[in-house]
């Protein structure tokens, strides 16, 4: 009589099992019996593995679909001679949730004919007023005329008065003598003329040096004007190289004692000198500073 070992509460034959004959084993070996509780455990493990496999397949399928929808692909075009060339990358992005809202949106103020007409009339009126100021500046001092040009340029409005400003610059270059001018006026003169392509020598700053060859300037406005003008230097202009080194050290030491808009102007100049700034961004900041401190 054959005996078996109990491995569970009940014994059931394993369905679909294949009995392999080992070397020297009897052909009449008894069937393998698996307890009921053990069978449930094995079945649950098979279900878990099967569920995990399906989950992985679904995940991979979703990732592949998302990748194909957003990953650029190269579109091939065929020429007349049969050669294929790569024209551009094509991406199939999902439509925007906003649709065409911003393509067709217009401000009620801007779309109003009456409001638009009023703004145009206001702009033309202000342009005429500024033109009158430019014409009347012929009776002003050299510094005031140059400062008018400088303000219009920093506000990005100089293109509206290009002819009038060119006439003033030409007069300044031909007729005005700056031998007796202070450092701030001389620096602004050099800055505007060189910026507009006039050939001016940096030797005009030599008179502001002391016997030791150092610049004798301690006024923040004078130093700031020289700092901006010196950054229009060209290769080999030693006096402007010295001016940059001197003014940078001086502004860094003066900044701790400055307040208000001048302190902000000096801080901005140390970060990016005026000739190297983007004009439209500079205009926004300059306009805000002028609103607070006209």
Structure in words:
- The chain is mainly alpha-helical.
- It contains eleven helices and four strands; from the N terminus they run ββαββαααααααααα.
- The chain has helices spanning 36-70, 101-104, 108-111, 113-136, 142-154, 162-175, 183-195, 220-230, 238-254, 260-271, 279-292, and strands at 11-13, 33-35, 73-78, 84-90.
- A hairpin with a 5-residue loop joins β3 and β4.
- α5 (142-154) runs antiparallel to α6 (162-175) and α7 (183-195) packs parallel to α8.
- The chain is extended, with a radius of gyration of 42 Å.
- It starts with 10 loop residues before the first strand and ends with a helix.
- The model is unreliable at 1-34 and 37-43 (pLDDT under 50).
- One of its GO terms (molecular function) is terpene synthase activity.
- It comes from Sorghum bicolor (Sorghum).
- This is Terpene synthase N-terminal domain-containing protein.
Helix content: 40-55%
Shape call? extended
The H-and-E topology, N to C, reads as: EEHEEHHHHHHHHHH
Q: What's the average pLDDT?
A: 77
Number of helices: 11
The biggest sheet, with number of strands, parallel, antiparallel or mixed sense and barrel status, is:
2 strands, antiparallel
Order of adjacent strands in the largest pleated sheet = 1-2
Alpha-beta content class: mainly alpha
* C-alpha Rg (nearest Å): 42 Å
Question: Care to count the β-strands?
Answer: 4
Tell me the fraction of residues in β-strands, as a range: 5-15%
Gap from first CA to last CA: 116 Å
Unreliable runs, pLDDT <50, ≥5 residues? 1-34, 37-43
Secondary structure layout:
Elements: E1 11-13, E2 33-35, H1 36-70, E3 73-78, E4 84-90, H2 101-104, H3 108-111, H4 113-136, H5 142-154, H6 162-175, H7 183-195, H8 220-230, H9 238-254, H10 260-271, H11 279-292
Antiparallel strand pairs: 1-2, 3-4
Helix pairs in contact: 5-6, 5-7, 7-8, 8-9
InterPro entries: Terpene_synth_N, Terpene_synth_N_sf, Terpene_synthase-like, Terpenoid_cyclase/PrenylTrfase
GO molecular function, one term: terpene synthase activity
Domain Terpene synthase N-terminal: 97-270
């Amino acid at each position: 009589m054959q005996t078996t070992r109990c491995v569970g509460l009940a014994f059931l034959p394993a369905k679909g099992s294949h009995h392999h004959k080992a070397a020297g084993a009897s052909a009449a070996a008894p069937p393998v019996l698996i307890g009921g509780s053990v069978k449930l455990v094995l079945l649950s493990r098979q279900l878990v593995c099967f569920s995990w496999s399906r989950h992985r397949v679904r995940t991979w399928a979703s990732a592949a679909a998302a990748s194909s929808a957003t990953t650029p692909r190269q579109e091939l075009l065929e020429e007349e001679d049969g050669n294929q060339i790569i024209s551009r990358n094509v991406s199939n992005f999902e439509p925007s949730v906003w649709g065409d809202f911003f393509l067709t949106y217009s401000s009620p103020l801007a779309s109003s004919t009456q409001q638009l007409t009023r703004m145009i009339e206001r702009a033309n009126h202000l342009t005429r007023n500024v033109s009158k100021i430019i014409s009347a500046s012929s009776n002003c001092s050299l510094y005031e005329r140059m400062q008018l040009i400088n303000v219009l340029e920093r506000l990005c409005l100089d293109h509206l008065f290009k002819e009038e400003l060119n006439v003033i610059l030409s007069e300044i270059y031909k007729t005005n003598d700056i031998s007796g001018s202070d450092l701030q006026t001389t620096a602004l003169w050099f800055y505007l003329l060189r910026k507009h392509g006039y050939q001016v020598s940096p030797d005009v700053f030599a008179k502001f040096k002391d016997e030791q060859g150092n610049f004798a300037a301690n006024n923040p406005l004078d130093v700031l004007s020289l700092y901006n003008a010196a950054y229009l230097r060209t290769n080999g202009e030693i006096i402007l190289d010295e001016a940059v080194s001197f003014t940078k050290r001086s502004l860094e030491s003066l900044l701790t004692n400055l307040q208000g808009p001048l302190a902000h102007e000096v801080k901005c100049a140390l970060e990016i000198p005026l000739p190297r700034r983007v004009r439209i961004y500079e205009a926004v900041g300059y306009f805000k500073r002028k609103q607070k401190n006209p």
